[in-house]
Amino acid sequence: MTQHQKRLILDYLFITIGSLLVAFAITWVFVPNKMVTGGVSGIAILLYHLFQFPISITSLVINIPLFWAGYRYLGGHEFAIKTLYGIIAVTLFLQLTAPLQLHPLTENPLLACIYGGLLLGAGLGIVFRGRGTTGGTDLAARLLQSVTGVTAGQTLLFIDGAIIAGAGLIFGIERVLYALISLYITGKTIDLVQQGVGTNKIAYIITADRTVVRDAILHHLNRGCTELPAFGGYTGAERPMLMTVVAQSEVSRLKELVRALDPRAFVIVSDVQEVLGEGFSRAQGEMTPEQTHT
């Protein structure tokens, strides 16, 4: 089996698991609590409470023409297949989990917006990790962008805003306020799933003894280290800067090591959302034992 085939299998596994979590969020939390968070699922929830239309069928009916238009005008064969798979998977899981509407995870609206947002964000984040989508209004936004030139973000904001405003007219303003909290939690959870928890740190070190400090980082910490050209702002003298990425647990060791070698060294440490490449896990950006020295 080739690397590409393995990656495809993993992608479809991610899309399947993510679609299941999306379905759980909708049928187990949002629907029984009359909570709308935008997108096609938001339209489906509104129509369900107004006319008792099945959410799975409504989502499919809206998504199919969006998918067809997206494939025709936006192209992308592999992306289109994954999108179609995501749409079908979500539709199937919405149908299978429909009985959960009678037994909600919680009937407390605050808990519903928190845990519904977490479930939905985790599901969508996993789908995106599989380089797929579940269709929805993001396709509509990209289509309108190609026609009108308005950015996808602005279009998506307008569409979701209109859906949530409609929910306010039907369910009341209080449910809209909860839905906005859920939207925020969903977005943050998507970022967390896609980018990781950011436990790595990047350090920039300006020192007069850069050779000694560099060798200590390479051999005592067993971490890679890169020299970057830099110049003093006051003197104009060349002062190359060292850059290294370490695990959060190693920050104290790094600072102690630099302080022992050069007490006057200038050290800047900041968070790293994700690290990819040699010496790091490609899946999560985590450190691996084998570090590549640059």
What's the layout of helices and strands?
Elements (H helix, E strand, L loop, with lengths): L2 H28 L8 H13 L3 H20 L2 H20 L12 H21 L7 H12 L3 H20 L1 H23 L4 E7 L3 H10 L6 E3 L12 E7 L3 H11 L4 E7 L22
Antiparallel strand pairs: 1-3, 1-4, 2-3
Helix pairs in contact: 1-4, 1-5, 2-3, 2-7, 3-4, 3-6, 5-8, 6-7, 7-8, 9-10
Describe the structure.
- With 294 residues, the protein is an alpha+beta fold.
- It folds into 2 domains: 3-195, no CATH class; 200-272, Alpha-Beta Plaits (2-Layer Sandwich).
- Helices cover 61% and strands 8% of the residues.
- The chain is built from 10 helices and 4 strands; from the N terminus they run H-H-H-H-H-H-H-H-E-H-E-E-H-E.
- The chain has helices at 3-30, 39-51, 55-74, 77-96, 109-129, 137-148, 152-171, 173-195, 210-219, 251-261, and strands spanning 200-206, 226-228, 241-247, 266-272.
- A 4-stranded antiparallel sheet has the order 2-3-1-4, covered by helices on one side.
- The radius of gyration is 24 Å and the shape is elongated.
- It starts with a helix and ends in a 22-residue tail after the last strand.
| Range of helix content | 55-70%
Low-pLDDT segments, ≥5 res: 282-294
Largest sheet: 4 strands, antiparallel
What does the oligomeric state look like here?
A: single chain
The span between the termini is: 32 Å
| Class derived from helix and strand content | alpha+beta
* Strand order across the largest sheet: 2-3-1-4
Strand percentage lies at 5-15%
Q: How many separate helices?
A: 10
The helix-strand sequence is HHHHHHHHEHEEHE
Mean pLDDT: 85
Radius of gyration: 24 Å
